[in-house]
Design brief:
about 70% helix; Hydantoin permease; mainly alpha; about 550 residues; Purine-cytosine permease
Length: about 550
């Protein structure tokens, strides 16, 4: 797709000598057509809101091809940016810093996918009554769905080289984008706390395996956890902070070199479960509780739908701020190929591990154990236990710093670009992760899946829908870079806020609100219709917000 300046467009209405055409009526008509075409192109460059229709089916086909694989990158430095809206972290990524090849993007996803919460999420499906194949199907369907907004949102980051907080200025306004960034960032802060708690628990288990168990009473004001648990939580927190102070490049390096180690250790855990369960048959012997005679006979869809939503919600956070990473991709082909391989393929494989090992625990230990840290702690032999726990900690670090730090750090930078750097934002994020007290959230499977994962997906689904609708359907994949960094450009709207976007977001969240209240406070009864809507919260919010935004912004 060509980006033409006003000067170039004007020159196209002239002949080779630079003299205006117009010797004949035919020339006048040609000139008029070219001038109209030029105005349309100028409108697009300036962030115009009309779709430019292709002149033929062949050009539409060519445009689609460019979009997915070969569309030229359009990153450039903004002209006269407002100093309050830009710093070194928020400038469009220069070509020399675009170091992410397809293999790097895939490695990023391997590091993200192989994590304790992802294992726990897959294993929880067995705990909720699914057989191994029902659990795998649920995860695969969910990730095939979330891959779509993931790739769509990644496009703008690759094309323009700017992070998520800057890109959202086009849809929500220059100031309004800070609200969206903070909402996304708060979710990530909670996730950072959850992952840090898991890593700290693994570190404590490793210490006890080497030295011996602690004996400590629960502390009431800490929510019932012991001082050793809290201490190792803080030690693991500090380890991650030391990695974060090195910046975004350290994240790429950690993901690249941890990926093969994590694959090897995950395979070893699967082999162990196969050996202890005496074969693949017993290993996958846990049957569905939804079949005839099962404890939950006929209730499969009641669990399947919210489980799909929870799995989509699991990655819905990253589907928003994926531009924070794809801005470093070498091309659209690199980000697309890396994501298409990294997310659905490795998530399905790792979910099989989580489901299979959890299913095997019913044979090995006589009970369903979906917590991988507890499973590893029961492995006989010091060496396997130590290696497994080190793998769990490496998996936690590789996921946490990439998925749960970049977004809130950038959101904080967006609040005050001149005062907050990425490193400062990352440190503040880490501090907020402590405040969230994640051990309370992980106290039950139902709270983890049905309240936390589905609850925040009801908020993030509408945001994703509005951003995608604005970029693809309203702006036809064309943004005005200068306006993204200006208080007087086309994205300033009403004093920096695009109220139509926020109204569309509220409309998207509203249908899921009664169901969320019922889930968080069971004593508050709501009609079954709203409970059903809540079980599909991300999908409802995503779809409703798109239609609402298009209706509100129709010219």
């Amino acid at each position: 797709m060509m980006n033409l300046s006003a000067a170039n467009l004007t020159s196209r209405t002239r002949d080779g000598s630079g003299r205006a055409k117009g010797a004949s009526s035919c020339g006048h008509r040609a000139n008029a057509r070219l001038t109209l075409r030029g105005k349309r192109q100028i409108n697009r460059v300036e962030g115009g809101r009309r779709l430019v229709k292709s002149s033929s089916s062949s050009s539409s086909s060519s445009s689609a091809s460019e979009f997915w694989l070969t569309e030229p990158l359009a990153a450039r430095q903004p002209v006269n940016p407002d100093p309050s809206l830009i710093n070194e972290d928020f400038k469009p990524t220069e070509e020399s810093k675009r170091t992410f090849a397809a293999s790097d993007v895939a490695a990023l996803w391997i590091g993200l996918v192989i994590s304790v919460p992802a294992y726990y999420l897959a294993g929880s499906l067995v705990e909720l009554g699914m057989s191994w194949w029902q659990g795998i199907l649920t995860v695969f369907v969910s990730n095939a769905i979330v891959l779509v907004p993931m790739i769509l949102n990644a496009h703008s980051g690759t094309k323009y080289g700017v992070p998520f907080p800057v890109l959202t200025r086009a849809a929500f306004g220059v100031r309004g984008a800070t609200i969206v960034g903070v909402l996304r960032g708060l979710v990530a802060c909670v996730w950072f706390g959850i992952q840090t708690w898991v890593g700290g628990t693994s570190l404590l288990t490793l210490y006890e395996a080497l030295v011996g168990p602690f004996s400590a009473a629960p502390i009431a004001f800490l929510g019932g956890i012991t001082m050793p648990q809290f201490s190792f939580f803080m030690i693991f927190w500090l380890i991650q902070v030391l990695v974060l102070i090195k910046g975004i490049e350290s994240i790429r390096i950690v993901e690249k070199y941890s990926a093969p180690i994590l694959i090897g250790l995950s395979t070893a855990l699967l082999i162990w479960a196969f050996w202890r369960a005496n074969g693949i048959g017993p290993m996958l012997s846990a049957t569905s509780q939804f079949g005839p005679g099962g404890a939950k006979e006929g209730q499969f869809m009641k669990v399947f739908l919210p489980s799909v939503t929870a799995n989509v919600g699991f990655w819905s956070t990253l589907s928003l701020n994926i531009p924070d990473f794809t801005r470093y991709a070498k091309s659209q082909k690199a980000q697309l190929t890396g994501q298409a391989i990294g997310l659905p393929v490795f998530m399905a494989l790792f979910s099989f591990l989580g489901v299979a090992v959890t299913s095997a625990t019913t044979v090995i230990f006589g009970q369903v154990i979906s917590d991988p840290v507890e499973v590893v702690s029961r492995i006989q032999g010091l060496t396997p236990t130590v290696l497994s726990l080190i793998g769990l900690m490496l998996a936690t670090i590789s996921t946490n710093i990439a998925a749960n730090v970049v977004a809130p750090a950038n959101a904080l930078v967006n609040l005050a670009p001149r005062k907050v750097s990425f490193t400062k934002g990352a440190f503040i994020t880490a501090l907020l992760g402590i405040v969230t007290q994640p051990w309370r959230l992980l106290s039950s499977t139902e709270g983890y899946i049905f309240t936390w994962l589905i609850g925040y997906s009801a908020l993030l689904g509408p945001i994703a829908g509005i951003i995608i609708a604005d970029y693809f359907l309203v702006r036809d994949r064309t943004l005005d870079i200068d306006a993204l960094y200006s208080t007087s450009g086309s994205y300033w709207y009403s004093n920096g806020y695009h109220f139509k976007a926020f109204l569309a977001m509220a409309i998207g969240v509203l249908p899921s609100l009664p169901g969320f209240i019922n889930m968080a406070i069971p004593s508050v009864a709501v009609p079954k219709f709203f409970q059903t809507l809540y079980s599909c919260a991300w999908f409802v919010g995503f779809g409703v917000s798109i239609f609402a935004y298009l209706a509100l912004t129709r010219e």
